[in-house]
């Protein structure tokens, strides 16, 4: 049986001074699963990703990541746990312009000993681990690698962001609409590379997107509107 990566049990969340945003009875993500999370704009997808990754704590209920109750850890312990076990791909990528491509990719290994050691188990150095991932994700032009990330196209930046999320094989990769700036063919091509690298790293993938055409590529889809008892009926896609 697959082990459970995320287990959410009767969790609720409201931003301060706002009405309840999330009220979810049950949600699980299993090891190796690739799950598509969809929902209207403003329905709380990014907030849910923050809860599942331990950035925020639920007001009620419990969220367990890799068997650890997020509420049992201090904020600093949660930060460390997140750095060790989760990789993020953000919508705007959040790459650091003053670092090279390779330095951006190796960044998580400077915050997490666990990920540094895992990367070094398979490669001679962190730069070689980064290059391997970049090549596998389709960024094979070595001339690009010394450039500032600002000089890369959106599609190239996306690959750098994916390599950064995957380095050191975190158990969970969370992607928040990382394909929205790409055309349909590029989105699907990127997803296929991302899936292959998640499989190679043994990472589960939780992927948020508005693009319903991507849904069939995943093992399973979750509709936030269907699982969230606090969903507002007037939300629009
Ligand atoms: N840091 C915050 N402080 C206060 N309210 C917030 C914060 N972040 C999000 N919200 C509110 O929570 C609600 C849900 O936002 P969230 O970003 O989670 O939705 P989403 O489904 O990811 O939206 P989108 O698809 O447009 O990115 C919105 O009403 C938003 O204003």
From TrEMBL:
InterPro entries: AAA+_ATPase, ABC_transporter-like_ATP-bd, ABC_transpr_LolD-like, P-loop_NTPase. Pfam families: ABC_tran. GO terms for molecular function: ATP binding; ATP hydrolysis activity; transmembrane transporter activity. Residues 6-230 form the ABC transporter domain. Keywords: ATP-binding, Nucleotide-binding. The keyword Chloroplast does not apply. The keyword ATP-binding applies. PROSITE patterns: ABC_TRANSPORTER_2 (PS50893). One of its GO terms (cellular component) is plasma membrane. This is ATP-binding cassette domain-containing protein. It comes from Halopseudomonas laoshanensis.
